[in-house]
Amino acid sequence: MHVGGDGFAVAVASGGSVRSFAGRRQSRATGLAAAMVVRRLDAASPGVRHIEDAVDGDFLPELAAHGFELSQYDAG
Q: Is a pLDDT exceeding 70 seen at residue 3?
């Protein structure tokens, strides 16, 4: 018996706007995101970094291009 599934969704609301990221194969999405962040760190100087220091506005669209859904809509 298998309970659950591989689907996932994340939504963030800020300033009257909601952005969501969803799809299947959550483990694949996590691995791709980690690999993309590591690639972006190649040019960084040594030291401790937070993920938000390594990504910019094109990160989620680039990740979504691997078969995930990225949406944005008004919260009101």
A: yes
